[in-house]
Design a protein that fits this description.
- The chain is mainly alpha-helical.
- The chain contains nine helices and no strands.
- The protein has one domain.
- Helix 2 packs across helix 3, helix 3 runs antiparallel to helix 8 and helix 4 runs antiparallel to helix 7.
- The longest helix has about 30 residues.
Length: about 210
């Protein structure tokens, strides 16, 4: 009697494509913000926050020119808190193109940032990012960081740290690395504290002049 052939082992899961590869392909295709979000599927919120707050995170005074990005990030964070699994974007926002023209230098820098993060990161407490409570906390954090960057005095560069903290936390979500999330939280907290401290001193100076 012949014995039945052993069933073949199931094929191993295909390795997850690096976030930098997905981002680079999307940029080469000249994608819009909506297309970029769709390319990252369930992590679309994280990549949207990286893109929107990447500009105010640059160590350059913007004079309030990035307020629209900070407002967009706060509104999208409300969707995350409300429990939406995918982003809804107004038509005007969906058609914003990522890359090309004046934005090319920024997106290439963004790509280098993601690649650098991938080199030093590894999955840490991945399960934590799947919790509903974590999504709510993430959304509240983005709102706090965006608001701190929005209300920073213009031409002071004080919007840099709160925005950079949100970018770092979002990279942690994108790469499933809680170390980035913790680091970003510390950076944003430091930025808010610095903003409040200098703001209080500025108020005292104005009072003395009056």
């Amino acid at each position: 009697m012949s014995t039945p052939a052993a069933s073949p082992d199931p094929p191993p899961d295909a390795p997850e494509e690096p976030a930098s590869a997905v981002l680079e392909r999307a940029l080469e295709e000249g994608t819009t913000l909506h297309g970029l979000v769709r390319a990252f599927e369930e992590k679309g919120f994280a990549v949207a926050f990286v893109v929107l707050l990447g500009v105010p995170a640059l160590p350059l005074p913007t004079g309030g020119a990035t307020h629209v990005f900070e407002a967009m990030a706060a509104l999208l964070a409300l969707e995350l808190i409300a429990g939406r699994e995918t982003l809804w974007l107004p038509r005007r926002w969906r058609e914003v193109r990522i890359g090309g023209g004046d934005r090319e230098r920024f997106v290439r820098g963004l790509l280098r940032l993601v690649r650098g993060a991938e080199r030093v990161s590894k999955p840490r407490l991945r399960w934590l990012f799947r919790l509903r409570l974590a999504s709510v906390a993430y959304g509240l954090f983005v709102i706090a960081g965006s608001a701190a960057a929005f209300f920073a005095p213009p031409f002071t560069g004080l919007d840099t740290l709160p925005a950079l903290g949100v970018v770092l936390v979002s990279l942690g979500v994108l790469l499933d690395d809680v170390a980035f999330a913790i680091g970003g939280t510390v950076v944003t907290a430091a930025g808010i504290a610095l903003e409040l401290t200098l703001g209080a001193k500025l108020v005292d100076v104005v009072k003395d002049l009056l």
